[in-house]
Structure formats: structure tokens, C-alpha cells
Amino acid sequence: MLKLYGFPLSNYYNKVKLTLLEKGVPFEEVLVPFGREGKEDKSPLGKVPYIETEHGFLSESQAIVEYIEARWPTPALLPADPWEAAKVREVITYCDLHVELCARQLYAQAFFGATLPEKFIERVKADLIKNIDAFKRVAKFAPYAAGDSFTMADCAVFVSLPLVALASKLVCGEDLVAGAGIDWKGYVKRIEERPAAQKVAADRKADQARAMAGAKATG
Description:
Blueprint: E1 2-6, H1 11-23, E2 27-31, E3 50-53, E4 56-59, H2 61-71, H3 82-103, H4 107-112, H5 118-138, H6 152-172, H7 176-179, H8 184-191, H9 195-218
Parallel strand pairs: 1-2
Antiparallel strand pairs: 1-3, 3-4
Helix pairs in contact: 1-2, 1-6, 1-9, 3-5, 3-6, 6-8
């Protein structure tokens, strides 16, 4: 059985988890602690998620979901048409690399108690506004991220866009996603009508509660 390594607070872990659940692929979750130590033989940068298959280990969320799509093609999370499939991948790239990765620079202050320099925050904010605008131009939200069907793009956007919105609100003082005219709350509500998304959201909230309880116990 395929094994998924990581933890439910990781949006990229949840991207893979949602893909597996949507496809009905049996898998085992293996919770691993945050940090690089001890993971290099499975994930060269020590990042989660990574999976273990009969062929060995595979890291990087997009490589993993592409493998899952090819290995278990039904139900399809990519359109059969090559152009439409490429447009789904385009939405994922803008979400993961240009929006979430940019916003990730704010997470230290938003979620982990650090204090970032004001000039740094101003630079990231400007980049994030530009990148969210670009993302908005490739995403459709009609009603799903890449069009009228649930696709691999939704597995990425659903788990990352709320984090970007929250981090920008906490650090920059405004929700830059909503400010760009994206109704991300309505979108999330629609996706959470799906049982797989409900499972991912519930597990994330439970893991967040455990983490907060642990922090209080050691604080």
C-alpha cells in the first residue's frame, strides 16, 4: 500500500492527500515531525510530503500528484484534451510557485511568532499583489479553479489559497486575495461540499488543535 509521509498542517501534504482521497486510492498516512533531520534518504531536501511506493520514494507534491494521476487515471483529475490539461497545470504553477511560495515569506511572522523587517514585508506585499493578479488571470473559478470540473488544480488551490489570504491579513493588515477580487471563501465552501475535502479540513483542524495544546503544555 502506498504510504504518504508528512503532517496535516502542511498544505502540500494536504494537496497530495486530497488527490488520493478524490481518487479513492488506498494509502497509509505516516506522520513525521517538522524538520529535515532523518529524511534525506527519502526526500533530498527533507521536505514533506513524500510517498513510498513499491518502486521507492518520491518527493515534491506536483511530481507526486502527477504520478498518482498516471498510476490511477480514474477518476481523472486532468482533462483528456492536451491544451485543457496544460491549462490546469498552469493554474497549479501560478498557485504553488508564484502565489503560495511568495506568501510563504510571511509565514514566520504570521504563524510562528517572528518579527519581519517592515521593508521586507513591503517588498513581499508588492510581489504578492502582482502575483495574485497574475494568478487571477489564469484561474477561472467557474466554479472550480480551472473551469467547470474539479481537477488537480483544485487540490492545490483549496489547500493553499486560504493560507495566503490569512498570512497577508495577519502581516500586511489586509486579505490580499479577497482584495484582488477573488471570492476564496465562497470557493472553499464549495470545495468543502466534497467528502474528501471535508476529511482533509477536519484532519488539519485536529492537528492544529494538537499543536496548540502541545505549545501551551511546553510554554
